[in-house]
Amino acid sequence: MSNIQTGAERMPHDLSHLGFLAGQIGRLITISTTPVIAGDSFEMDAVGALRLSPLRRGLAIDSTVDIFTFYVPHRHVYGEQWIKFMKDGVNATPLPTVNTTGYIDHAAFLGTINPDTNKIPKHLFQGYLNIYNNYFKAPWMPDRTEANPNELNQDDARYGFRCCHLKNIWTAPLPPETELSRQMTTSTTSIDIMGLQAAYANLHTDQERDYFMQRYHDVISSFGGKTSYDADNRPLLVMRSNLWASFLMIRGPPRSTPLYSSAASATYNRPVLTPELPFALQSSYAS
Question: Residue 108 sits in which domain range?
Answer without folding.
Answer: 18-47+64-164+235-245+278-287
